[in-house]
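Forwarding these from the shared drive since the link keeps breaking.
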Amino acid sequence: MKTEKPLSTHLPTQSHTSAREEEALAEAVIGEAKLTTNGFYVRIFADAPSRPPVLSPPMVMVVEDDDVTARLIEHILLKADYRVVRAANRAEIIVGFRAEPDLVLLDVMLPDLNGFDVLNQIRSNEKTKNLPVLMLSSLGSLGDIMKGFTLGANGYLTKPAESAALLAAIEEVLIQ
């Protein structure tokens, strides 16, 4: 004869989110609205570590695997007097960091790696942990934005980014 287990009378405990996840969610909600109205969202950390002053003109590393998009972004940045180094894959990113960029524009979907993983590596490396990173992606859901902020992105832009929004986001992050 089979004996049935009694039904549990208590509710399962709710999983608690960390303060960092709650902060990232709040930022993502704000960011999602700003992305819709401004085309970009940048968050400035109150306790951001100080960085050495940016040389003039600043160097931006554009991590983008679509050649047409990368050339368009490069054109916009060069016209605005930025120096540019481009990377489309893991090997080119490694080479790009040798140029010591002042800021990284980072796509999420790359051919041989994920931009969120790259961001995580940037934040984990002592030499690059304070480097400003703006995510530039066609992924613009609340979850994607939250993931970027949880991993330490300074801002999020969705593609196609308008040149004015792109330049405004870069300037806002570089002057912080």
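-- next protein --
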Amino acid sequence: MGRKLKSSKWPGVLFREHASRKHGLQFDKYFIIYYRWNSKNYQEALGWASQGWTGLKAAAVLGELKENQRRGEGPKSLAEKRAKDNEQTAIKKNQNITFGRFFMETYLPAQDCKSAQALRREKSFYNVWLDQSIAAHTFDEISELMIEKLKRDILKVGRSARTVEYCLAVTRQTWNLALRRGVTDKPWPGRYVKRPKADNRRTAFFSQEQAQTLLEQLAKKSTQWRDITLLSLHTGLRAGEIFRLQWEDIDLLNKTLHIRDPKSRRDRFVYMTDEVFEMLTLRRSGKEAGFVFTDRHGRAIREVSQTIQRAIDALGFNEGINDRRHKLTFHSCRHTFASWAASAGVDMFTLQRMLGHETAAMTQRYSHLAPSGIRSAMRKLDGTLSRKVKAGVVPIRRA
């Protein structure tokens, strides 16, 4: 390549002259920086004078690295600095990509692990809310004020706080993927936007008569969905837990169901009622493996059929009810099981285990349906207070 390595007038900057090629009146020079960091010697090449490098420019790079080493921030070696520069170049190159383009071309195709229902919901949020607000803007243009306006627009038309939460979650997830892909280096601008308080907990449940009527109605439409509804009403299982049930999880001898990988991330065992035992016995008919309930192609069911909601609406159970939290749906079967159990005197700790709730707070919504314990406590307290009065405690008189 050239001649021997020489020292320059700048400490830590070395150079080697080309054997024949000249740059201007002098031989072309190849600049190298030399430094020591973390008890190691580093010698890293920069480039030729013909490529724009000078001793002063090399000294500036070396000074930057040494300052970063001293402060403990930023690139501390030439390799780190080049990687950072390449990252910044890639980000600048992608600065013209809009949020909408990235969402459609990159984010959605990367969500293959999500269910079809979840993807439809995210597309719906994009079409209804994001397409008209931030989709046409680049990531660099989107501000906290725009996210705040998006939140207000959703609430202004009467949508729930939960809708705001879901919509912002889709925005945040898209943004985080853009960060990982190097499309932007700007943190999500909605991180400081205050979330409205959401309480979308459904509390409606079927009466005994309504549940029986619904089962009879479903039996006329679909035996399978009648059986699924019966199973949820009698065990409190979530739709996903029912859809994932396989025959190897069914123990008819001991009348138990093994629920694997549930939402709470803990396996649990659920006991059958006589009606569930009879239903599963009839459905089994020699089957030893596979899903208990399948779609028309023999695969696991992915979502609840509209057959159930149509049956509920046809029976008029939701007439005159405008608040969606109080409307009866398939998920109300789980609430019904919990409500019936609480009303029958099942304590909250046991009910939490039966439902597979991760925290006791999730089960407390049913505590008002089990007043017997409170009444019993009040009777004991009343008896204690009465004894104190008889023992000489003077009651307070009204003025």
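The first helix runs from residue 55 to 71. Confidence is low (pLDDT under 50) at residues 388-396.

- D.
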